[in-house]
Every structure is written in structure tokens, then in C-alpha cells.
């Protein structure tokens, strides 16, 4: 049987939806993972034909495993929807499956510093500087954003307002995840959007624009996503031109990616870009809003088929994330059934297990669930999602 | 003077409960969050697998505090009210979240029981969980 090898995945969200998409397309999904969780929840994924647990996911080990699998599977594509395996998967796909993916561009996008350097002269690039291990004081004006070149999910991204905060953040990051260098970026004011893009033979196609609601404290947490249905034509055109030139400069000729951008007084500014669809609820949101299963269409693109990116419907979709204000052991969660009964609710996810420790958010990983709603207007979808989220109660025993 | 092995155990529990109550007293520089003076326990009668149960506030309880123990192994027990994490009377052992002292007492012959199950002292007056939801 024809097979697709997936390198790494989460147990839920966009990357996990790839398995059923592969099955729908008639391929056996094979997952290479270093997460033991998958072995425990194997029965939750009947559409995965084979789960291969690997102690190490370095290039050599993955290559060897694919060599072994190729002996008894007809591998058609090697794909990853999670960091840091996207460019590795594309590289191996080109080697094993004769695909023509833009490996160099994908690996540039996988590293924030390489992305900034590649787009150094692009008008959408904000001011930035590299902070090396010698701990040079930043020249960039306060406030700025300090981030790790390989951060994701808002981990290791800090809002720095003065020298003291800079020293503390750098010290923290060096303890947690030592890096040869860090990036300090100009703080851009303005609404933030996530743009899901598929590039087909050098032409970027904007599949969806999602506005993000962000709370800014010491770190940044996205607390809600809203699919944008209409945008001022001039602004949209400006966005398309920005994206077109970014994709061209990065060299992405064939592949999928998402950009996080802000619309500032100086026009569109790139916050970051990633060589894959955004994780979590994103694929479900796009599917509900436009009838496009972006994960499935990306797989088709990587298989060398033509992706179908035509909108089948247009619905307002809003996803509201739940964060908590207190620390504690989770004793119980209540109200999910009631929350589901709110009209227009299409999905509810609650993450933490009973007995686990929950806390106020310092990264996106401390968002403990979401409610997703559709509505006839943007306001209606938002109101439904938020009122549903308020009905979910978390019982915490203080630590 | 009556005696039995369960009574011997009950005497140890009585002693430890007194020590516990004493331990928390008299500190000037140490802050102890809450005075502990109770070792809650359950009793098992010889011929049944269900714990000994007393009637309380329209429900039942299998949880007790030892108040007095005389030389003939007759004990005065305070009924402890089992509550779930929402503060309601806990119906099953799985629902038990905290125990609250009541003013209700019973007298029992300790030697008519065959087993004692001590429980965590932290169950007494354990604060109910904080309820959080999206603001």
C-alpha cells in the first residue's frame, strides 16, 4: 500500500489531523515519534497504520528508519507538521520520493535568526539585533522583544522594558535552553494576524487570515483567534504584496507556511514565520470557516498533486482560549456539556488531566482549553465562544 | 478490664492524636498553617466488608474522631461529616474530599470491631478548591 511517513506529531490539533487526512486520501500513515505518549494512546489513532517509536530523532536515525520502512512500504511522501522536523522531512522527501520541495527555504523559516537575516533588507522586517553569548548590551530602543531563534508557542519570548528585565530574561533563557545567540526585535504596535499560505509553483495563495487577540504581560499569550472574512481592499493588497515578496526572497517555491504579521503605522511588519500550518485548533478553524482542510491540501501538495484551495463556504469562526489566574492541583473540571449546549459551538477541548498542576500562563502551553463557535456575524461567533468558555469550571486545590 | 488487639491499636491512635495536638502548640517563630488535632479513621466490623456507618444529616458517615477511650475499651466517637469537592455530603468514598467535625457523638465497644483504617490528617477541614473559569 502507498504510505506517507510523518516525522513527529502532537497528540491533538493540526498535526494529529494529518493522519485521518492521509487515510482519506488513501495512504497508510506511518508516524515516527520520540513521544512515548503515542504508544499509550495508540487506540485513539486507528488511522495510523504504524507508530515507530524512536529514542533519537536525529537525521541519521530517521534516515535509517525510513530506509528500513521503504523495504516494505511504497513511501510517497515524508512530511512533518511540527518543529523542528519540517525541513528534515522535506529533505528526505526529496531524496526518497523525488519531490521538489524548497528545503533551503523551509530550513530558513525554521530558524528565526536565519529568517531575519534572509529578510534583512525587506520592508516588512522590523529593526533587530543579535545578542551573543558575550552578553553585549542591546543598542535597540526599549521596549523590545527578546526571543530564542528556535522558540515556538511563545516559549522564550519576552517583552523587555529596561536593562534589568533584559539581564533577568537572558539569565533565565541561558539557564533553561542555552543558545549561542538571541534575537532582540523592535516591538511593533498594531493588530496581529496569522496568515496561512500555500505556495504553488512560486505563487503564494492566502488560504486564511486569522486575527489574534493577545495578552501582553512578561510574555505574550494568544487568547483568541478569529477568522477574518473581510479586509479593506487596499490593506489586503498591501498584505499580498508583502507576502509575495517575502516568499520570493526566502525562496519558497513549493510548500506551505504561516506568517505572523502586524499591521502597524508603517505598514505590514513580519513578526515571525514558520514552515508549516499553525498547530492547535487552526486546521479545524479553517475547515469550519471555508470548507478547506488545509492539512489535507498540504499533504496533496507534498504528494505532487494539485491542492484544492477553493472556498466551499464562508462562516465566521471564533476560538476562545481558557487561561487561569491561580496555581493549583486540578481537582475536577465541570460544565463541558453545558458549554457544548451554547448555540453555534462546534468544538471544545480541555487539556489538563485531573491531578495535574495548573498555573497562570507564561507560555501558550498554559492555555488549558478552548471553545470554538460559528456565527452569522463576527460578534455573534465571539459572544458564543466566550459565553461557552465561561461555563467551564476548573476546581483547583491551592498548592 | 476488657482488652483486644483493636483496642490496643486504638490506644496508640489516642496517644498519637494527643501528641499531634500538642506538637502544634507553643511556637513563637514557626508558623504552622493549621492546628491538627484529629486522626480520622474508619471502623470495620468483623462479619461484613462494609465499614461501620452512622447516620448523619440525612446521610451516613463512616468517618470518626476518637474523643474518649475508657479502660473497658468503650469509646466515645465524634461523627465526621464527609464532604465532596463542592462542599456537599459525599455519598461514596470516591467523592470524599474533606471531613468536617460535627457535634454528634456515639458510644461504641471497640472490641466488637475487627479493623481500623486511619486516614490522612489533612482531610480535616481541608479548604474547598478554588473555582476558576474564563473571565
Automatic annotation (TrEMBL), chain A:
InterPro entries: ATP-dep_AA_Ligase (IPR052032), ATP-grasp (IPR011761), BL00235/CARNS1_N (IPR041472), LAL_C2 (IPR040570). This is ATP-grasp domain-containing protein. Gene3D superfamilies: 3.40.50.20, ATP-grasp fold, B domain (3.30.470.20). Residues 112-303 form the ATP-grasp domain. It comes from the Bacteria. PANTHER family: ATP-GRASP ENZYME FSQD, FUMIPYRROLE BIOSYNTHESIS PROTEIN C. GO terms for molecular function: ATP binding; ligase activity; metal ion binding. Keywords: ATP-binding, Ligase, Nucleotide-binding.
From TrEMBL, chain B:
It holds the Pfam family Spore-coat_CotZ. It comes from the Bacteria. This is Spore coat protein.
Amino acid at each position: 500500500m502507498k504510505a506517507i511517513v510523518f516525522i513527529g506529531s502532537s497528540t491533538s490539533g493540526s498535526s494529529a489531523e494529518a493522519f485521518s487526512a492521509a487515510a482519506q486520501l488513501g495512504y497508510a500513515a506511518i508516524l515516527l515519534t520520540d513521544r512515548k505518549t503515542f504508544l499509550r494512546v495508540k487506540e485513539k489513532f486507528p488511522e495510523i497504520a504504524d507508530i515507530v517509536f524512536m529514542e533519537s530523532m536525529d537525521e541519521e536515525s530517521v534516515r535509517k528508519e525510513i530506509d528500513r520502512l521503504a523495504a516494505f512500504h511504497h513511501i510517497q511522501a515524508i512530511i512533518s507538521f511540527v518543529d523542528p522536523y519540517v525541513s528534515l522531512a522535506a529533505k528526505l522527501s526529496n531524496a526518497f520520493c523525488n519531490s521538489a520541495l524548497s528545503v533551503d527555504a523551509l530550513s530558513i523559516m525554521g530558524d528565526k535568526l536565519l529568517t531575519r537575516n534572509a529578510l534583512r533588507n525587506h520592508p516588512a522586517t522590523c529593526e533587530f539585533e543579535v545578542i551573543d553569548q558575550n552578553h553585549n548590551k542591546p543598542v535597540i530602543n526599549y521596549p523590545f522583544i527578546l526571543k530564542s531563534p528556535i522558540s515556538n508557542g511563545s516559549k522564550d519570548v519576552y517583552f523587555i522594558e529596561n536593562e534589568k528585565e533584559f539581564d533577568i530574561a537572558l539569565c533565565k533563557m541561558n539557564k533553561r535552553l542555552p543558545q549561542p545567540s538571541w534575537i532582540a526585535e523592535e516591538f511593533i504596535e498594531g493588530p496581529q494576524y496569522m496568515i496561512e499560505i500555500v505556495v504553488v509553483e512560486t505563487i503564494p495563495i492566502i488560504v486564511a487570515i486569522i486575527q489574534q487577540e493577545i495578552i501582553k504581560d512578561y510574555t505574550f499569550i494568544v487568547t483568541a483567534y478569529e477568522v477574518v472574512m473581510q479586509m479593506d481592499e487596499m490593506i489586503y493588497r498591501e498584505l499580498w504584496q508583502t507576502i509575495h515578496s517575502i516568499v520570493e526572497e526566502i525562496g519558497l517555491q513549493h510548500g506551505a507556511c504561516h506568517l505572523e504579521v502586524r499591521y502597524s503605522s508603517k505598514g505590514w511588519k513580519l513578526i515571525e514565520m514558520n514552515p508549516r500550518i499553525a498547530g492547535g485548533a487552526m486546521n479545524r478553524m479553517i475547515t469550519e470557516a471555508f470548507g478547506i482542510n488545509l492539512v489535507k491540501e498540504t499533504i496533496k501538495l507534498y504528494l505532487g498533486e494539485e491542492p484544492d484551495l477553493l472556498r466551499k463556504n464562508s462562516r465566521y469562526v471564533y476560538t476562545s482560549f481558557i487561561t487561569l489566574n491561580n496555581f493549583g492541583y486540578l481537582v475536577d473540571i465541570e460544565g463541558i456539556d453545558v458549554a457544548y449546549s451554547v448555540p453555534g459551538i462546534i468544538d471544545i477541548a480541555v487539556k489538563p488531566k485531573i491531578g495535574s498542576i495548573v498555573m497562570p500562563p507564561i507560555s501558550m502551553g498554559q492555555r488549558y482549553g478552548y471553545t470554538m463557535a460559528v456565527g452569522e456575524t463576527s460578534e455573534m461567533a465571539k459572544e458564543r465562544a466566550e459565553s461557552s468558555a465561561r461555563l467551564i469550571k476548573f476546581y483547583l486545590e491551592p498548592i | 478490664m476488657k482488652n483486644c488487639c483493636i483496642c490496643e491499636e486504638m490506644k496508640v491512635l489516642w496517644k498519637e492524636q494527643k501528641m499531634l495536638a500538642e506538637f502544634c502548640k507553643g511556637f513563637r517563630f514557626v508558623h504552622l498553617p493549621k492546628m491538627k488535632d484529629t486522626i480520622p479513621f474508619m471502623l470495620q466490623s468483623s462479619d461484613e466488608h462494609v465499614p461501620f456507618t452512622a447516620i448523619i444529616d440525612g446521610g451516613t458517615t463512616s468517618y470518626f474522631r476518637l474523643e474518649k477511650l475508657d479502660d473497658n475499651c468503650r469509646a466515645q466517637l465524634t461523627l465526621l461529616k464527609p464532604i465532596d469537592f463542592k462542599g456537599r455530603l459525599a455519598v461514596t468514598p470516591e467523592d470524599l474530599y474533606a471531613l468536617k467535625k460535627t457535634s454528634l457523638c456515639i458510644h461504641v465497644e471497640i472490641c466488637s470491631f475487627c479493623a481500623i483504617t486511619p486516614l490522612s490528617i489533612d482531610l480535616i477541614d481541608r479548604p474547598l478548591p478554588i473555582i476558576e473559569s474564563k473571565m
